[in-house]
Amino acid sequence: MSSELLFTDRVVIITGAGGGLGRVYALEFAKRGAKVVVNDLGTSSSGEGNNAKAADKVVNEIKAAGGQAVANYDSVEDGEKIAQTALNAFGRIDIVINNAGILRDVSFGKMTDQDWDLVYRVHVKGAYKLTRACWNHMRDNKYGRIIMTSSAAGLYGNFGQANYSSMKLALVGLSNTLSQEGKARNINVNAIAPVAGSRMTESVMPPEILQMMKPEFVVPLVLYLCHESTTESGSIFEVGAGWVSKVRFQRSAGVHNGNITPESIRDSWSQIESFDNPQYPTNATESVSGILSAVNNKPTTGPVLVKPTKPAASA
Ligand code: NAI
């Protein structure tokens, strides 16, 4: 078990690889033999401007160390162009790391449509466009490894990040479904929620914490998940500072009542929210079959709703 995980001649696309986490993924993949497409639009943290230098710098670093890399300066919204860069330069696509990201943090009452749309376009639409552009190619090759970059803000919510947390959880949904669609074609898809010192977090973390949270600590999990020997798919991981943890959805065993009413909900609330006998559905079929087996154990007479005492206001 001591053999090194190598990526010899694997072609990997990494978005937002001009800095932060993306840069260190790119350097490590290249060091281990991969051919890397370093994508970066070169924007500010809030998505303004563009600069080709960001990607060029990382490509030069990789080449100076003897690795193979090519730059791409398109926005992730133009995923087809990024995929084409990989195909033109290296002739195939094996691994996609959807990593590019921006922040437009603001409390919900002050959020503008632009704050919402821009964060959607970079995180969700960008990951969709690039992954879609690579998907059929991976299906035809019967091989693919894909990472979606979520966030603790998406999994748990965070003040001032209604836009960002919505998009980050959307990426978990995308990862979950693609892992199921990709299963028969050896395409593994996982989501990570990293924590790392970068320009994105330098204003919210003190220097000593930033030092502990080097992006390099996130890299090993991403490389492990993307290796050809790894079968893990459809999972969510939190990772940072050398700590790695798997996250899953848990639900209570629930309560079935064929005569369900608001009052029966009230009366059985402690059972509804009891996690004494938890269940862990891993897909929608398991979720529904769990409900059906609970229902099948007891006859259902249908929900009983109280009739409104006043006529409903006309629409
Ligand atoms: P960063 O700001 O250092 O790097 C993001 C890169 O994405 C930048 O180089 C930027 O130019 C690029 N980019 C932005 N919009 C782009 C677009 N439309 N097309 C192509 N490139 C674009 O940020 P960091 O910290 O490295 O974050 C990487 C990912 O990890 C992001 O998705 C972020 O949301 C996520 N993340 C980071 C956390 C952290 O603690 N640093 C926490 C949770 C999630």
TrEMBL record:
One of its GO terms (cellular component) is peroxisome. The chain holds residues 1 to 315 of 441 of the full protein. GO terms for biological process: adenylate cyclase-activating G protein-coupled cAMP receptor signaling pathway; fatty acid metabolic process; sorocarp development. Keywords: Fatty acid metabolism, Lipid metabolism, Oxidoreductase, Peroxisome. Residues 10-198 form the Ketoreductase domain. This is Peroxisomal multifunctional enzyme. It comes from the Eukaryota. It comes from Cavenderia fasciculata (Slime mold). It is found in: Peroxisome.
